[in-house]
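Standup notes, structure subgroup. Blocker cleared on the NAP input:
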Amino acid sequence: MPESPRSSSPDTRPLALVTGASAGIGLCFAERLAEQGHDLILVARRRDRLEDLARRLGADCGADVEVQPADLTDPAELRKIEDRIIAEPRLSLLVNNAGFGTVGRFQDVEPDRIESEIRLNVLALARLARAAVGPMVERGAGAIINVSSGAGFQPGPWFANYSATKAFVTSLSEAMAGELEGTGVRVQALCPGPVSTEFAEVAGTDEGSLPDMLVQTPEQVVDASLTALEKDQVVCATSTFVGVSAALTSLLPRGISRRLGLALARRTFDRD
Ligand SMILES: NC(=O)c1ccc[n+]([C@@H]2O[C@H](COP(=O)([O-])OP(=O)(O)OC[C@H]3O[C@@H](n4cnc5c(N)ncnc54)[C@H](OP(=O)(O)O)[C@@H]3O)[C@@H](O)[C@H]2O)c1
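Run returned:
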């Protein structure tokens, strides 16, 4: 953890900003970080969910929780969250988690949806990381967790745009981590496989088509991420399945790896 004294006084408590905190992995990050003594800024579009969570974490953990409803695909609303980060010298952790995917043949996906996915998964993530990193370097402390995906390790037929956005996230995170060596600021690319959240429903797929043993809970993913952060691991593959697939992809010739990825995607997604 960046700074995690449970007993610290309110103005020295570490502060984390979590995007996509109204559901799934982001909600679980908010819970874990509050339990560990963080104050929080929570971002997502569903204000009611964020306000309920803020009340609960305040009552259960004594956390000071600020709610910042925003659609991060909207340039003005994204700018508002960037400005909030820039105005906050106390930010010790940014969890860049908000994101969504779309299952379908690329040619059939609505162009506006492709754009929104890139705006949220790529543009918003990069701009928020850029806003947070400067003050962290000046302080010589801080961390950024960029939620990527196992899908970013190889091209993903029927998940093409999503996989490409997550390849960006992993690449950006690894490059930033290199630039930041010795500054006291850490960057992690968090790469889960399938997780039981609202993601599958939003993506338009059926999580039930996957073997249960491959599907993790948000708690497993968040615990793996926070443990990896303590160990300064830059890429956190949260399951053996993701770790082995990533290793195979990097070892096999690109053509063979692409054929294997295509065969797996056909089994999982090809519903035509
Ligand atoms: N679940 C998986 O299988 C899986 C696997 C690998 C990686 N991931 C990644 O994990 C991250 C979290 O996903 P999840 O599984 O927790 O999915 P989820 O349950 O659908 O949660 C997504 C979160 O992102 C927020 N969000 C969506 N669109 C937004 C927008 N335009 N502006 C602001 N916030 C927005 C949602 O809140 P609102 O709807 O209230 O805005 C929600 O809080 C994503 O980056 C995803 O790509 C998920």
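Discussed briefly. The pocket of NAP is lined by residues 19-26, 44-46, 70-73, 97-101, 120, 147, 149, 192, 194-195, 197-199, 202 (CB under 6 Å).
Next: hand off to the docking folks.
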